[in-house]
Amino acid sequence: MGAAVLAAFFVAASAVSAVQPGSIDVDVELVLAVDISYSVDEEEARRQREGYVAALASEDVIRSIQGGPLGRIAVTYVEWADSGFQRAAADWTVVASEEDALAFASQVAAAPLERGHYTAIGAALADAVNRIESNDYTAPRLIIDISGDGPQNQGLPLDQARALADNAHVVVNGLPVISADSGRWVRPVEVNLDDYFRDNVITGPGAFVLPARTEAEFREAILRKLIIEIAGALPSPGEVDPFLAQRTGRAP
């Protein structure tokens, strides 16, 4: 990324930081940041979105929301790819009931499916931080839930994107979508994507990686991840990656 573009990211972040705090209290501010680059074919991109829609409308997620101190969260669903491609399929919405959850899920499902070429994880994180800092909400927990099927190949360096999240007290959790086969679900990658997300993407107290390797596992991972994030819990020992205790100083 050129120096001028990089500078623009930090100017934007600084400007957003000056915005007055939001006036609507919620338990969690959650950005669902979903990879929609061309490494995911159109059929599988639609199935990926359907997995989020099903999870958002599930009884378990709704119960988790209603079990919080205020019983409501603010959530937005953002699809991303290139460094200049981050689009909200559903903008910030307060979800406090089954009706709210179903309406938000329907909005995500109905949004046009647009794609981008590259995988700019850093730019997606910077965009998500800006969305959190510029919204109309306040919450004790700020979370970016980012999925991806490969390592970054364009855009803002990940160490700088993570610094933006750390400075804004935003936790970044990762959902790497992993496959050894080409074409069916996602393209194969040349790195260990679990390790890549642990070492380069996630950040913040309690941050974790929950990988998915099949379509069915992807749907289950989304559901579990949302419940964990909304409830403010930790993954179970069978789910958690071995780096969690090292990053947080807490045993799984």
UniProtKB/TrEMBL annotation:
Record InterPro entries: DUF1194 (IPR010607), vWFA_dom_sf (IPR036465)
Record Gene3D superfamilies: von Willebrand factor, type A domain
Alphabetic keyword roster: Signal
Residues of the signal peptide: 1-18
Official protein name in the record: VWFA domain-containing protein
